[in-house]
Amino acid sequence: MEKLSKVSQPVQQHNLGKQKEKNDKIQDGKLQMKQGGPDEASKDQNVMAVEALDRRNIWEPSVYYALGKENFHFAGHDISIHESIETYGAVIWPGAVALCQFLENNQQQLNLMDKAVLEIGAGTGLLSIVASLLGAWVTATDLPEILSNLTFNLLRNTKGRSRYIPQVTALTWGQNLERDFPYPSYHYDYLLAADVVYHHNCHEELLETMRHFCRPGSRTTLLWANKIRFQSDLRFTESFKCSFNTTMLAELPQQEVQIYKATPKE
Fold first, then answer.
1. Among residues of the chain, what percentage have pLDDT more than 70?
2. Contact 96, 126 (CB under 8 A)
3. What are phi and psi of 25, to 5 degrees?
4. Residues in a beta bridge with 192
5. Does the pLDDT of residue 87 top 70, yes or no?
C-alpha cells in the first residue's frame, strides 16, 4: 500500500482559542445528528454541511484556509483554489486531495504525461489542475452552475504552467452521454473521480456515466477516490466492484478515504 506524503507546511496558523470554540460547536452538531433528526436524508445532508465547515477549522499539513481560498503545493507549483460552502461542488473534499497526492507520488506507476484525461464532478478543479500540471490534456466536467468557478480556478492555476490548456464542459451524470460524448470520438486514457459519492440521488446515473467512458474496448483506466461516510457509499462501492475490474491502490484510515483503480470488464 502506497504511503501518501505531506506536500507542504502550513503558512499560517489559526487562533487556537477560536478554533477550539468552533470545533466544539461542530462536535455538538455531530452529537445532535447522532441523537436523531427528521429523517435519514436530512442527517446525511447535515453530515456533509458539518464536514464542509470542518475543513475551515481543522489544521491540515498540506493546506491552509484564508478568505474563501485554499492553498496547496503540488507538482512543483503553488495552487490557490477559490471555494464556497454554498454548494457541494464548490468545496474541496478529502478524496480530491488524497488522489492529487497519490498521482504526484506515483508518477512512474500512473504517468499522465500527454494522456487524455477526463474528470467527472470536478468541483473546484483541484484534481484537474494537478493532472494538467503533471502533463495531461485535461477536460474537467461538472454541472452548468459549477462551471464558472471551475473555469476560474483552472485557468488561474495552469496558465503558463501546463503543456495543454485544460478544457471545461458541462456534464450531467447519465444525461445525453451518447449525444454529447459519443464513443469513440470522445475517448480518454484516464477517467478521474474524487468524492463524487455522497448524499445525492444520482448513484445509478453516476455509475452509468463511469460505464459510458470506461467501457469494454476503450482501454480507459478509471481512478476513483472517496471518503466513506454513509451506508449508501458502501452500497455504491459494491456496485462499482461488480461493474469493473478493480484494485484498491490505497486506503487511508485516518481520512477514511479509499482510492481505487478500475478497468472495463471485457
1. 71
2. yes
3. -65, -40
4. 119, 223
5. no
Q: Please state the pTM of the whole predicted model.
A: 0.76
7-28 confidence digits (pLDDT tens): 333 233 333 343 334 344 334 4
Question: How many Cβ atoms from other residues are within 10 Å of residue 138's Cβ?
Answer: 32
Write b or e for each residue in 38-70: b if 16 or more Cβ atoms lie within 10 A of its Cβ, otherwise e.
Answer: eeeeebbbbbbbbbbbebbbeeeebbbbeeeeb
Q: 68: pLDDT confidence band, cut at 50, 70 and 90?
A: confident
Cα dist from 143 to 65, 134, 146, 229, 230, whole Å:
25, 25, 5, 23, 23
Residue 231 has what pLDDT?
87
The x, y and z cell numbers of residue 3, run together, are 504511503
Q: What is the pLDDT of residue 93?
A: 83
Nearest CA to 221 among 257, 255, 196, 249? 249
DSSP-assigned letters across all residues of the chain: -PPPPP----SS---HHHHHHHHHHHHHHHHHHHH--S-HHHHHHHHHHHHHHHHHHS-BTTBEEETTEEEEEETTEEEEEE--SSSGGGS--HHHHHHHHHHHHTTTTS--TT-EEEESS-TTSHHHHHHHHTT-EEEEEE-GGGHHHHHHHHHHHHTTTSSSPPEEEE--TTSSHHHHS-TTTS--SEEEEES--SSSS-HHHHHHHHHHHS-TTS-PEEEEEEE--SHHHHHHHHHHHHHEEEEEEEEETTTTEEEEEEEE--
- Is 224 a residue whose pLDDT tops 80? yes
